[in-house]
Amino acid sequence: MPSKDQVLGDFYYREAKRGGYRSRSALKLKEIAEKYRIFRKGQVVIDLGAAPGGWLQVEREMVGPEGLVIGVDLSPITPLPFDNVRLIRGDIAAPDIIEQVCKLAGGKADVVVSDLAPKFSGIHDLDHVRQLDLSTMALAVSSRVMRAGGSMIMKVLMGSEFKRFFSSVEPHFGSVRIHKPKASRESSSEVYLVCMGFRGKSSS
Ligand SMILES: C[S@@+](CC[C@H](N)C(=O)[O-])C[C@H]1O[C@@H](n2cnc3c(N)ncnc32)[C@H](O)[C@@H]1O
């Protein structure tokens, strides 16, 4: 007998396929974006940890042909068939990544998203800390490339360091909500921070 998680996982997998999305997690971003009304037509969006590109597809739908979407990942991403979805293959920790992103963006971004994940070891505490390290880097990048008033959506894994991390994010935004999308397995410790009203201060 399949578990509730397996049944739901299969359902969202099929839904993502039906919608033509490259990843099941595209549905997570869609749910968050619609609930919190994150995107507007014409916006500039930076996607950190973008491969294989499911979130990029959702972002392109939301900002339309007049917007600009920039995806960054260590892994190669098969290009999307749109001129306004640009890709950078690289490490978000690389010293020149901010310069590369700003050059492509031609200014500051309206929204930064991060679905960054380390290579999982299966040891929860270790994976939790590694993922928070990536999220800390994502916050540092976003505070350099995002305009005041902008929004950030960031995946984090819950665990012993979550509270400390949350406290480090909160002062940078007008509001920070914790959201668990329906397409996220109940057994997974992942949640998404929905951060709105960037105050415009650097976190580094
Ligand atoms: C869960 S996947 C992202 C899925 C994506 N949101 C989608 O819908 O297709 C996480 C990604 O983070 C990337 N990643 C991990 N560490 C990174 C780093 N230091 N710099 C850039 N990308 C990184 C991985 O290569 C992986 O592709």
Keywords:
single chain; binds S-adenosylmethionine; 204 residues; Rossmann fold; seven-stranded mixed beta sheet; globular; alpha/beta
Structure description:
With 204 residues, this protein is of the alpha/beta class. The chain has a single domain, classed as Rossmann fold (3-Layer(aba) Sandwich), CATH 3.40.50.150. Helix content is 37%, strand content 25%. It contains six helices and seven strands. A seven-stranded mixed β-sheet has the order 3-2-1-4-5-7-6, sandwiched between helices. Helix 2 (26-36) runs parallel beside helix 3. The protein starts with a helix and ends in a 6-residue tail after the last strand. The mean pLDDT is 94. Residues 22-23, 25-26, 49-55, 72-75, 91-93, 115-117, 134 line the site of S-adenosylmethionine.
